[in-house]
Design a protein that fits this description.
The protein contains 11 helices and 11 strands. It is of the alpha/beta class. It has 2 domains: 136 residues, D-Maltodextrin-Binding Protein, domain 2 (3-Layer(aba) Sandwich), CATH 3.40.190; 97 residues, D-Maltodextrin-Binding Protein, domain 2, CATH 3.40.190.10. The N and C termini lie close together (11 Å).
Length: 252
C-alpha cells in the first residue's frame, strides 16, 4: 500500500475537488471500517460542504468489509483496514491507482471513569493486567482483533483471553460494556476508547504494540470515479488531517 503521496499527485487530485462545483453533484457510496467512523463522519460533512457532493457511508468490521467488497455491494470508495485489501477478492475490486494510508492507530486499554488504572507500562505488566482482569470488552472479529490475537500469542495468553474477552460487534459497544460494568477493561484501538465514561490507561508498550492502518482506494466499477477521487484527495487535506488527529488517530 502507498503510505505517502507526492505533492504533485495530491495537488492534482485537489484540483478535482476545486472544480467540483462545476460538475453535477454526486452521491458517493463509501464502505469503511467502524473504527474510523468518528473521524470519517466529520470529514464527510466537511467534504460535502466543500464539494456539493453527498457521502453515504456503510461501516463494518474487517470480515464484513471483505464480504462487501467482494460481493455485489456497490461502492465508490473504500476506507478500510489494510487487512481488507490484502484479501485478493476485495483488492480486485479496486481501480488501479494510488491507495494511500489515510490514518493509523495503536491499541490501548481503558477503564470505567473513576476506576483504578492498572500498570501496562511494560509487556510483563500488560500481561499481568490482562490476566488479572475479570473481563475484557473488545471486538475479536476485526482488524484490531487480529492484531490483538498476535499480541496475545506473543505474550502466551491466547487461551486465557478467549475466556476473558466479551466480544462486541461495534466500537460503540466497547465503551458501553465497560461503562455499564459488563466488562472491567476495554482493549481496542485508542481512538475508540475516547469516551467521557472511560479513562484511557494508555497505549500498549512499544515492545508489543501493533497499529491498524486504514487504506483508501477507489472502486474499479465506481459510478462516480471523479467524485470518489476528489474525496480520496480530501482525506489527505489539512482539514481532514486535523479531524483525524482530533479523533485520536495518526495521519497515514
Amino acid at each position: 500500500m502507498v503510505g505517502k503521496w507526492s505533492i504533485t499527485v495530491l495537488f492534482g487530485l485537489l484540483l478535482v475537488l476545486a472544480s467540483a462545483s462545476a460538475v453535477q453533484a454526486a452521491e458517493l457510496q463509501v464502505i469503511a471500517g467502524g473504527g474510523i467512523a468518528a473521524a470519517l463522519n466529520e470529514i464527510a460533512v466537511l467534504f460535502e460542504r466543500a464539494s456539493g457532493h453527498k457521502v453515504v457511508i456503510r461501516y463494518g468490521t474487517a470480515p464484513e468489509l471483505i464480504k462487501m467488497a467482494a460481493s455485489d455491494v456497490r461502492f465508490d470508495l473504500g476506507v478500510a483496514p489494510q487487512d481488507v485489501w490484502t484479501d485478493a477478492a476485495a483488492r480486485a475490486q479496486l481501480a488501479p491507482g494510488p491507495r494511500p494510508d489515510v490514518a493509523r492507530v495503536g491499541i490501548g486499554v481503558a477503564v470505567r471513569s473513576g476506576a483504578p488504572k492498572p500498570d501496562i507500562s511494560t509487556a510483563a505488566a500488560l500481561k499481568q493486567t490482562l490476566l488479572n482482569a475479570q473481563s475484557i470488552a473488545s471486538i475479536p472479529a476485526s482488524a484490531t482483533g487480529t492484531q490483538l490475537a498476535g499480541i496475545y500469542e506473543r505474550l502466551g495468553i491466547t487461551e486465557e483471553m478467549k475466556f476473558k474477552t466479551k466480544a462486541q460487534t461495534a466500537p460503540r459497544q466497547i465503551a458501553d460494556a465497560v461503562a455499564n460494568c459488563q466488562a472491567e477493561l476495554a482493549v481496542f484501538g485508542l481512538n475508540v476508547l475516547i469516551d467521557p465514561r472511560l479513562e484511557i490507561v494508555g497505549p500498549f508498550p512499544a515492545e508489543v504494540q501493533r497499529e491498524v492502518v486504514y487504506v483508501a482506494g477507489v472502486a474499479g466499477n465506481s459510478k462516480e470515479p471523479e467524485a470518489a477521487k476528489a474525496f480520496l484527495a480530501y482525506l489527505m487535506s489539512p482539514p481532514a488531517i486535523a479531524v483525524i488527529k482530533a479523533k485520536g488517530l495518526n495521519p497515514g
